[in-house]
Design a protein that fits this description.
- The complex is a heterodimer of chains A (159) and B (235).
- Chain A is mainly β and 159 residues long.
- Chain A is built from one helix and ten strands.
- In chain A, strands 2, 3, 4, 6, 7 and 9 form a six-stranded antiparallel beta sheet that branches. In chain A, strands 1-10-5-8 form a four-stranded antiparallel beta sheet, with no helix packed on it.
- In chain A, a hairpin with a 7-residue loop joins strand 6 and strand 7.
- With 235 residues, chain B is mainly β.
- Helix content of chain B is 6%, strand content 32%.
- Chain B is built from one helix and 16 strands.
- In chain B, a hairpin with a 5-residue loop joins strand 10 and strand 11.
- The longest helix of chain B is centred in the first third of the chain and has 14 residues.
- Classes of the chains: A mainly beta (159), B mainly beta (235).
- At the A-B interface, strand 3, strand 4, strand 9 and strand 10 of A face helix 1 and strand 1 of B.
């Protein structure tokens, strides 16, 4: 057997090991303490997107906007890197679309209920991270009969 | 540096504190806002001419610039406005035909031919009177809003002669329409309030009414008039 063939076999074995070694680790998501967050108006006034309905029973979207001052406690991840998500669980009154703009500390984005969206990825350099988010909720008005609480939270992925 | 919970069995005391801190973070309460439907109910009734800032889908011609549901303010579409106009529906019975039982077609001075929904030429004027609107409400489909007509006993002339309002009837249609009309054909019932149509929730409802005078009784010559008031009531 030639040396070249031994080398090839060895490389193949090493490559296989490398694939096993670097398979994505299971991310561990932890809810971040957001008790320092404040809403300028915790009651979001929902209004019809269009004052007039369509010919058929469609286009019944209601929209509401509010501003929150986000302050999350990331002390446990200080001096590490992390990925922070805004998570909007599936909940009543049904499908909810949430979009937001930020002042720059976090990323703007949008998410459907039952999902989450990345708002920060990088080093955690301060015990608290803060930003002002303008949130816009979009809900099918035919699902809303009365005021409903909607919950969301921030998650840290650590690997 | 914070230890990971998975390696708890080998942590030294300083690391345990960090693990507990992580546990507290896990139990942090999520944030809650309340979505509150403000002004959830709106109704609009148009009999004859109405008022809109623009067609719902934008523009004034058909087809609309945007297919529903991509209409509304974001697409240049309008919103309803008040309009105090009272339209007239009238007819003339030729001499020699009074009371002969042949219905006399009536026409309107309304110029409302186009639907404010999409600009479509829905009614034919002056032969037809537009009637339409919507009932906006939150929640699942509800009982329809009703439209009633408050009808005097009769039409009067200057001499005090009277023609029963029951001598006036109407048919209902709309250009391109098929199926049942939200405002079906009917005949006025004098001296009372009668239901003349209904509007399903969260949809546009419209019909074109063509009035006629039944001309089944002989009446003195003159100009007879009377006012019918249409009222929309949401559940």
């Amino acid at each position: 057997m030639s040396t070249a063939r031994r080398t090839t076999a060895g490389f193949f074995f090493a490559l296989t090991l490398t694939i096993f070694c670097c398979a994505p680790a299971q991310a561990n998501s932890i809810t971040i303490d957001d008790s320092g967050t404040q809403a300028l108006d915790p009651a979001v006034s929902m209004r019809w997107k269009t004052a007039t309905p369509a010919r058929s029973a469609a286009d019944n979207v209601m929209i509401g906007t509010t501003t929150i001052r986000v302050r999350i406690n990331v002390t446990p991840w200080l001096k590490r890197s992390g990925r922070i998500y805004l998570s909007l669980p599936a909940q009543q009154p049904g499908p909810i679309r949430l979009s937001w703009i930020t002042q720059g500390r976090f990323l703007p984005g949008q998410v459907q209920s039952g999902n989450r969206m990345l708002i920060y990825s990088g080093p955690i350099t301060t015990p608290f991270m803060e930003d002002t988010l303008t949130l816009q909720f979009v809900v099918d008005g035919t699902l809303m009969r009365r005021a409903v609480p909607v919950t969301y939270h921030f998650e840290m992925d650590e690997s | 540096m914070r230890a990971k919970p998975r390696s708890l069995g080998r942590l030294h005391p300083a690391s345990i504190g960090a693990v507990l801190l992580a546990a507290f973070s896990t139990s942090a309460p999520a944030y809650t806002v309340t979505l509150d439907p403000a002004a959830p109910t709106a109704i609009y009734l148009q009999v004859g001419v109405g008022g809109f800032t623009a067609d719902y889908c934008g523009g004034t011609s058909y087809p609309p610039q945007h297919e529903t549901p991509n209409c509304g303010p974001n697409y240049g579409g309008g919103t309803p406005e008040n309009n105090s106009t009272i339209n007239l529906v009238s007819g003339t019975v030729a001499s020699g035909t009074v009371g002969n039982g042949t219905a006399v077609a009536m026409t309107t001075n309304s110029t409302a031919a186009n639907s404010y929904l999409d600009g479509y030429v829905f009614c034919s004027v002056p032969a037809q009177l537009y009637i339409g609107g919507f009932y906006r409400t939150t929640g699942a489909t509800t009982a329809a809003a009703s439209v009633t007509a408050t009808v005097p006993a009769g039409l009067k002339d200057a001499a005090g002669d009277s023609i029963p309002f029951s001598q006036i009837q109407w048919t209902s249609s709309g250009n391109g329409d098929t199926g049942a009309e939200p405002f079906p054909a009917g005949t006025f019932v004098g001296g009372g309030v009668q239901t003349v149509g209904s509007m399903a929730s969260n949809s546009w409802n419209e019909s074109c009414l063509t009035f006629s005078y039944l001309n089944s009784t002989v009446r003195p010559g003159g100009t007879y008039s009377g006012a019918v008031l249409y009222t929309m009531s949401a559940p």
